[in-house]
Amino acid sequence: MALPKQRMVPRLGSIDDLLKLSEQSSTEADTAPASQGGIQSIPITKIRFFKDHPFRLYEGERLSDMADSIATNGVLMPVIVRRIERDEHGCEYEMLAGHNRMNAALLIGLEQLPSLIKEHLTNEEALMYVVETNVLQRSFSDMLPSEKAKVLALRYSEMFSQGKRNDIIDELKKLENPQYINENGTSAPMGQRPTNRDKVAQEYGLSKNSVSRLLRIDKLIPELKRRTDAEELPLRCAVHLSYLSEDEQKTVELSLSKNGYKVDMKKTELLQDHSGKLTAEQTVKILSGEATRKPRNTAPQPFKLKHKVYAKYFTTQSKASEVEEIIDKALELYFSHQRQQPPKSSHEEKEEHDDVPDL
C-alpha cells in the first residue's frame, strides 16, 4: 500500500523566508479545500490569543530560550489558527496552537508567523485543538490542577467525539513530525466517548475519586483556580467551593484577597453548606473563624471542700443537702456582716499590718 505524500514543514529564519512562503502558500491555498486551509504567513498583529486560554505559558528563561532558538533556526513548525470575524482590535485569526511561539517571536521582533489556518471550526472544536496540543507537548502528570481539570472536562463534555479527537491528534503529530504514520489508521471507532470514569481514570493514570475532584475544579472561577494551582487552596477545599454559585465564589475570593484569611476543610465545608444563601457577612464570619469559634466558658470552676475542713464541721452521716444548706447560711451571714462593717482607713490597715508578729 503506497504511503500518502508527505509535506515537509519549511525552515523559516527571516521575514524574507516568510514572504516567500506566503507567495507559495497563497497558490496552494487556492487549490486546498476550505476546511483544510494552507500554510500562510500571517502578521502577528492579526492573531489574538485563545479566549480564556486554560494553560500556563512560558515565562522567564524558558521563553528566552525559545526566542533564541527561533532567532537561530527560524520557526520550524507553523502555528495553528482559526479564522474569525474581524474583532475590535483588527484581529482576524485566533491562536489554537502556538501561543508560546508567538510570544517568543514577538521578543525578537518577528512580525509574521507561518500559520496553518483552520476554517469553520466550532468553539468546541477549537478548544479541542488547544487542549490536545498541550496534552501532546506536556505530560499530563506535570500539568497544574486547573489544566488537568480542563482536559478532563473536555472529555466529559457533550460535544466530545473520540473520532474527531483522533483526527486532531493525528494532524498535530504529522505537523510536528512529517514522517509520523498512524499505525492504527482509521480503526479507532467513531464516537467512542468514555461513558464512565474508569476509562478516563485509566487513560490518565488517576483514581476515580481524583477524576471526580478534578472535574469539580473546572467549575471554579479563574481566581480560585489560580489559588488552587499555587497550592494556596487545597484540592479538597477547592472542591467544596466549586459547589458555590459564581457570585458566591466571587464573594469568597474578594474576602480572601482583602483579608488574607487561611482556608481549611472546616471552613470550606461550612461555606458549601451555605450554598445558595451565602452572604458577604456570613463569608467573613466563616473565613475569619468566628462562625466556628467556641464561646468562652463564663461558668465558675467547680470548688471542692477539703476533707479536713469538712470533717471539722460535719460528720460522715451528714446529708449533702444539709451540708449545702448550712454552708449557704454561713456564707450569707458572713457577707452580711462584712457589708455592715464600716470601711477601714489606710491608717487602720497599716496598724493591723504592723501588729502582725514577725515569723
Task: Give an overview in words.
There is one protein chain. This protein has 359 residues and is an alpha/beta fold. It folds into three domains: 7-121, Conserved hypothetical protein from pyrococcus furiosus pfu- 392566-001, ParB domain (Alpha-Beta Complex), CATH 3.90.1530.10; 122-183 and 198-218, no CATH class; 221-293, no CATH class. The protein is 52% helix and 7% strand. The chain has 16 helices and five strands. The protein has helices at 15-31, 60-73, 99-107, 123-137, 145-156, 162-176, 197-204, 208-217, 222-229, 235-241, 246-259, 265-273, 280-288, 307-313, 320-340, 346-355; strands spanning 39-43, 47-48, 79-83, 93-97, 112-118. Strands 1-5-3-4-2 form a five-stranded mixed β-sheet. Helix 4 (123-137) packs across helix 6 and helix 10 packs parallel to helix 12. The longest helix is centred in the last third of the chain and has 21 residues, at 320-340. It is elongated and about 110 Å long. The model is unreliable at 1-37 and 184-195 (pLDDT under 50).
Provide a brief overview of the structure.
The chain has 359 residues and is of the alpha/beta class. It is built from 16 helices and five strands. The chain has three domains: 7-121, Alpha-Beta Complex (Conserved hypothetical protein from pyrococcus furiosus pfu- 392566-001, ParB domain); 122-183 and 198-218, no CATH class; 221-293, no CATH class.
